[in-house]
Amino acid sequence: MKIAQIAPLWEKVPPTTYGGTELVVSRLTDELVRRGHDVTLFASGDSQTLARLEAGSPCALRLDTSIKEPAMYELLHVSKVYQHAAEFDIIHSHVGVWSLALASLVSTPTVHTLHGIFTRDNSKVYRQHHTQPYVSISDAQRLLNINYVATVYNGIAVENFPFFEQPQEPPYLAFLGRFSPEKGPQHAIAIAKQAGWRLKMAGKIDVVDKKFFEQEIAPLIDGKQIEFLGEVNHAQKAELLGNAAITLFPITWCEPFGLVMAESMATGTPVIAMNMGSVSEVIANGQTGYVCQSYEEMAAMIPQALELNRHKCREHVEKRFSVTQMVDGYEAVYEKLVGERNFSNWFNSALRNSLESIASLTR
Fold this sequence. Notes:
By secondary structure, the chain is α/β, with parallel strands linked by helices. Helices cover 39% and strands 15% of the residues. Strands 3-2-1-4-5-6-7 form a seven-stranded parallel β-sheet, sandwiched between helices. Strands 10-9-8-11-12-13 form a six-stranded parallel β-sheet, sandwiched between helices. Helix 8 links the parallel strand 11 (246-249) and strand 12. The longest helix has 39 residues, at 323-361. The chain is globular. The relative contact order is 0.12.
């Protein structure tokens, strides 16, 4: 198939440090190429891919301080894709609402993967375009009445995460994610303090979260019990998670998937998380971690989590959240939508020919 993948421009593909959506797009795109598909990736110009790259900006928008209206670049980016829609069998959008209006104007089908959450405002856009085909990345994400054609879990390249037989001594807890209120770094610190554990934290601080970090997180970082590592690359991330005794996932929002959980379990480290969003779908409760109803319970479950089998954590990811399984899921969606379009084209053509034949007989 000839496939167009539309990635966000905010981060490059794959991201150097933080960027869950872009990482998923990278794994998906490269595996599709390996399977023989003709793939074009529409992404930032500093992206690296096995596919044909069409740049929507010279570099990731997050890195270009000269850009004052990034939304304008996103609009140009998506417009470019749909100007070439006829060249593809299917378009796969990872950019949310940006592609919805244009997708309805072309005959090439678009499948939209929902990487974010529904808000009061964006829900109005999705409802207006409710008949378009959507892929949810967890069943928990399906909070709006729109046309879901499949749930395809995000996949990680498990082979790129070394397995850690034992946690590092002295032991510590790990937190990895954006330093924003919804990711719960403030709760991770409270849990570590309640349980008397060391905590190593890593992740990026977006401009919108700088005040939150400076006021609520920074004063609690002492470099001893609470350690801040900043943004980390893949190798550093794997080491942080793999050497940890437990990874904390103390979210305060309905996380659609949560790659950190899968990445941690791939290294062998169990996860203790708040029961919100997709958490109960990603963690095998009591086997690869614990799904908790409160932050106090998260702290209380640390002793039990230490007894979990680290091999089972990795096996769980290999069976459910590999790149292979993710791409299998998306290929099935592509084939379904392309098949439906081909049938529709055939039916319309046959109907038109029949009507023309009838008209010629009545002349």
